[in-house]
Structures are given as C-alpha cells and as structure tokens.
Amino acid sequence: MADHPLPPPRILTHPSSTAPQLITQGAEGLLYRTSYLQPSLPAALKYRPSKPYRHPILDARLTRQRILAEARILAKCRREGVVVPSVYCVDEAAGWLLMEWIEGLPVRVVVNKWLGSKSEEQVLTAEANGRLVDLLKRVGAAVGRLHAAGVVHGDLTTSNMMLRPAPPAVEPQQHGDESLQREDTDGSIVIIDFGLASQGTHEEDRAVDLYVLERAFLSTHPRTEKLFSQVLEGYKTTFKAATQVLRKLEDVRMRGRKRSMLG
Ligand SMILES: Nc1ncnc2c1ncn2[C@@H]1O[C@H](COP(=O)(O)OP(=O)(O)O)[C@@H](O)[C@H]1O
Ligand SMILES: [Mg+2]
C-alpha cells in the first residue's frame, strides 16, 4: 500500500477483512475502518507504523508499550462500565490494535454543524441552545464516569469523542414520521483515543484533563465560552469528587493564564 513507509501489517491485507479504508493519519498513527471475523462487523484498526528515524530496538519497545497501554486502558474502562470501543484483538509487536467501530460523528463535527446554522444570539438563547446544552452535559457526564473509573484521558478534545446515535426505535410508525425524527445532537457519548491515557486518581491530573478539554473546546468552537460550564455541570452528575477537581481546575487555569502572560 502506497501510504506506508514500511510494509503494512498483514492484517490490513488479510483476505478475511474488508478492504481497509484510511480514516485519519495522525502524528502517531493511522486509523482504518475495516471489519473483524465477518464483513458485516465493522472494526477500527489503529496502527502505529515504526518510525525509521528511531533506533529500531527502542522504536519496537515504545510501539509495543503504547499499543498495550491503550488496549489495557480500554479493557479497564469496559470492566468499570465506561462506554468505550471494545478491544477485538491486539498485535503489539506489529503495532496495531483492532477495536469496535463506533458509528456516528465526532462531537467536534456535531457541535460545529449545530453552531454553523445559528446566529450569535441563537447560540445564547435558552430555547435554541437547549439541545446543545444537553449534549454538553452528556459530554461532561462521560468524562465524569471516566474519572470515577480511575482513568485520566490525557488528550480530551471533541475529536476524541464520538456521538453514537441511538439505535432506531422499533415502535410502529403509527405517529407518522415526525415522532421518529432524530435530532443531530441525540445519542450517547463514546470517548475514544486512549493513546495518552493513564490510570490515576489524582485531582491534579483530572483537573488538567478538564483544562485541556476546555482549551480545546473554546478554540475548536468559538462563541461557546458561556456554554462550556455545562460540561462541568454534567461532570458533577456522574463523579462524586467533582467539587474538589473543579476547585483544582481554578488553580490550573490560573497557572495557564500566568504562563500565557509570560508568552
Ligand atoms: N473505534 C472507532 N470507531 C470509529 N471511529 C474511530 C474509532 N477510533 C478512532 N476513530 C476515528 O479516527 C480518528 C483518529 O483516531 P484516534 O484514536 O483519535 O487517533 P489519533 O491518535 O490519530 O488521534 C478519530 O478522531 C475518529 O474520527
Ligand atoms: Mg485522536
């Protein structure tokens, strides 16, 4: 495959998998949509190709450790009941991890779609922003569950969360199409990308997680300054120790401001 500096892992060309489709190419790795065991079961393949500029032994060790760390954290989240993609299969030596494919759109896309169709005032009027407020609360609630499970994400952004639509209702169509119409903002939040995650229960690390999300949120979604607090409201609903973390968040913000004043 032309995208690869080195031969791709064999799973990408394995006859049982659907022709893999490259979804994103990040700094650390590539993400493909493929299938697992049967063509009807879509799967996400995260592949970290080796970096030719690194020392080969060091490179192999790093890749192995990172893939395993990500798979372990995903497994831990599942055990603790946090909704994340389930791990199907790992080949840490070859540098890949195969997991459940999450349908839906990244929250970044959903929020920007929503913002795109609204005026400045509409973004702030209660009636218009009700749906967004609700979505932001679900985002915060998902982060709260993650923290309650003892996991710190390390890279919380709206690109690292998917909004998975609810499965179609099975009720008969007696009320016509209207009652079945889904809003773009409906669905459940699934946090993804645990490449920088760690296990931990320090308030400080949790506060930094929230701070990273806040910064990412405001830079990705302008005009939402007044709405970010809804994420924190949602966070409080699922995480008992939220108050202490939010207090720490004040300190982290303060440090952030000082840092940016210094340039
Ligand atoms: N399990 C998954 N299901 C569906 N899409 C995914 C899945 N994992 C990742 N993606 C998509 O691929 C993108 C990159 O994956 P991610 O794990 O965030 O890797 P990176 O480290 O490159 O940011 C995500 O932003 C998302 O759009
Ligand atoms: Mg990512």
What's the topology here?
Layout: E1 21-25, E2 30-36, E3 38-47, H1 56-79, E4 87-91, E5 96-100, E6 105-106, H2 107-116, H3 120-124, H4 126-148, E7 151-152, E8 161-164, E9 188-191, E10 198-199, H5 203-220, H6 229-238, H7 242-262
Antiparallel strand pairs: 1-2, 2-3, 3-5, 4-5, 6-8, 7-10, 8-9
Helix pairs in contact: 4-6, 5-7
Bound molecules: adenosine-5'-diphosphate and magnesium ion.
Magnesium ion (MG) binds at residues 159-160, 193.
Summarize the structure.
The chain has 263 residues and is α+β, with helices and mostly antiparallel strands. Helix content is 42%, strand content 17%. It has helices at 56-79, 107-116, 120-124, 126-148, 203-220, 229-238, 242-262; strands at residues 21-25, 30-36, 38-47, 87-91, 96-100, 105-106, 151-152, 161-164, 188-191, 198-199.
Structural account:
Strands 1-2-3-5-4 form a 5-stranded antiparallel beta sheet. The protein is globular, with a radius of gyration of 20 Å. The protein has helices at residues 56-79, 107-116, 120-124, 126-148, 203-220, 229-238, 242-262; strands spanning 21-25, 30-36, 38-47, 87-91, 96-100, 105-106, 151-152, 161-164, 188-191, 198-199. The protein has 2 domains: 10-100, Phosphorylase Kinase, domain 1, CATH 3.30.200; 105-262, Transferase(Phosphotransferase) domain 1 (Transferase(Phosphotransferase), domain 1), CATH 1.10.510.10. With 263 residues, it is α+β, with helices and mostly antiparallel strands. The chain is built from 7 helices and 10 strands. α4 crosses α6 and α5 packs across α7. It binds adenosine-5'-diphosphate and magnesium ion. Adenosine-5'-diphosphate binds next to β1, β3 and β5. Adenosine-5'-diphosphate (ADP) is lined by residues 23-24, 26, 28-29, 31, 44, 46, 85, 99-102, 106, 159-160, 192-193, 195.
